[in-house]
Write a structure and sequence with these properties.
18 helices, 36% helix, alpha+beta, eight-stranded antiparallel sheet, 19 strands, single chain
């Protein structure tokens, strides 16, 4: 009799029939990520409905020596929420824990469970006349727990920061089943180590986040959005400074995209069109927002664009008029990842370098990739205002999928070696998961890895929380 043979009846008794899934026909969606890039097997999927039930699951799994893989919306890009192939792990899905526990308008906070979908949290905040600013292409399925576990960024980092900046308190079930009740809605709390930051970005390797206190902001009442044609990434970096000098912290978003990125969207996404009559090498999507109605943001943006044209930074521009046109501009940006999949295998690299070095990084990395694989198509886009580029690769036209996938590790090294040469990071906002776990040993400071392993050993001495993720072997 195996450990799981005795564990499953105990889990069924603790969770009831709604909380345990073992039917192979029902657990398939939990075993593969949304892109089909990572797949595994599991002894069972558990779906606890409360923090107490999460604690019971972790205690039972610890006693049985069975590993647990926490999972939110399963929208990640690094395989961090997918079990291994052994079939002995238990997937812990937080999909039943979706409640808004409290919304405190005076304190500007909302307390939500980890399984709450990001879009539902945005809507709850809006109903109270507030803003929860994290915005992602997957916000209709990504969960709060998943965005915290990966320290998600999104399109508004420039103004509001990442999830690490948006969380005030956490409730976490530790690997031994104890519950840390850290749901404090305090902006000042100088009582020792700030423990919540251990769990934000840890990808479920230190415990299971079950609830969070998140910051809210005043609702946006004025918005201005522009789509700008650029000669290259150097112009994008200069344009940021032009807009910031005039708009200050009203500059909420600044996205940059190569022509290849936009061409894929125009070719494969329904209902989109090119705002300009001719193609351009690069584009920027610039958005200003304000809490005041009638704040005159379009005029600010027009002034900034006028200066950009005077300095030969912009080749064409359109300011969105009405919500429908603004949505169509954002669709060109948000459709890139899915559109690229239509071109075959997509090798995704989420990197960050200092903003000032983005132009040189792009030029040097493009050149190195072209030398390594002539005809390779680079799909570069991202939140250039914070230095984050999604530096993705598609195969040369007409080449075989298998041959391209076979060179994934080699091509990743080209991108990451260049990133390291520019004092950057191989993961900006997608996490490490299993995709970049072994690479981390080559690009992370050895002392940092030693300290991280020490934290892991302290909180999870048996190594049962999401093993094989984040930390390299050894």
């Amino acid at each position: 009799m195996t450990a799981t043979d005795t564990l499953l009846p105990a889990l069924r008794a603790a969770l009831g029939p709604a909380g345990l899934v073992t039917d192979p026909d029902q657990i398939g969606s939990y075993l593969t990520d949304w892109r089909g890039a990572w797949s595994g097997a599991a002894a069972a999927v558990v779906r606890p409905g409360s923090t107490a039930e999460v604690a019971a699951v972790l205690r039972l799994c610890r006693d049985a020596g069975v590993a647990v893989v926490p999972q939110g919306g399963n929208t990640g890009l690094c395989g961090g929420a997918v079990p291994d192939a052994s079939g002995r792990q238990v997937v812990l899905s937080l999909g039943r824990m979706r409640r808004v526990r409290e919304l405190d308008p005076a304190n500007q906070t909302i307390t939500v469970e980890a399984g709450a979908v990001l879009q539902s949290v945005q809507e709850a905040a809006a109903a109270a006349g507030r803003l929860f600013p994290l915005s992602l292409g997957s916000e209709g399925s990504a969960t709060i727990g998943g965005t915290l576990a990966t320290n998600a960024g999104g399109t508004a980092v420039l103004r509001y920061g990442t999830m690490r900046d948006l969380v005030l308190g956490l409730e976490v079930v530790l690997p031994d089943g104890r519950v840390w009740h850290g749901l404090r809605g305090l902006r000042k709390d100088n009582t020792g180590y700030d423990l919540k930051h251990l769990f934000v970005g840890a990808e479920g390797t230190l415990g299971v986040i079950t609830a969070a206190v998140l910051k809210l902001f005043p609702a946006v009442r004025s918005l201005a959005t522009a789509w700008v044609a650029l000669p290259g990434p150097a112009a994008a970096v200069e344009l940021i400074e032009v807009v910031r000098a005039l708009a200050g912290d009203r500059l909420t978003g600044f996205e940059v995209m190569s022509r290849q990125s936009v061409a894929f969207v125009l070719a494969h996404a329904a209902g989109v069109r090119d705002p300009f009559p001719a193609p351009h090498p690069w584009y920027a999507l610039v958005e200003l927002s304000d809490t005041l109605p009638g704040a005159g943001l379009a005029e600010v943006l027009e002034t900034a664009l006028g200066e950009a044209f005077d300095r030969d930074l912009a080749r064409d521009a359109v300011i969105g008029s009405g919500s429908a046109q603004v949505a169509s501009l954002w669709a060109l940006r948000e459709g890139i990842s899915e559109a690229q999949n239509a071109e075959g295998p997509s090798l995704k690299h989420d990197v960050t370098v200092p903003v000032s070095r983005i132009p040189e990084f792009v030029e040097r990395t493009d050149r190195a990739l072209a030398a390594a694989l002539p005809g390779i198509r680079v799909v570069a886009y991202g939140h250039v205002g914070d230095g984050n580029l999604h530096y993705n690769l598609s195969k040369p036209v007409g080449s075989a999928d298998a041959a391209f996938r076979a060179r994934a590790d080699e091509l990743a090294r080209v991108v990451y070696d260049s990133t390291a040469a520019f004092a950057g990071s191989i993961s900006a906002e997608h996490g490490i998961g299993q995709a970049k776990r072994d690479l981390l040993a080559d690009y992370e400071d050895p002392l940092e890895l030693e300290l991280m392993r020490g934290v892991k050993a302290l909180l999870d001495p048996a190594g049962l929380m999401n093993p094989g993720k984040v930390l390299p072997a050894g």
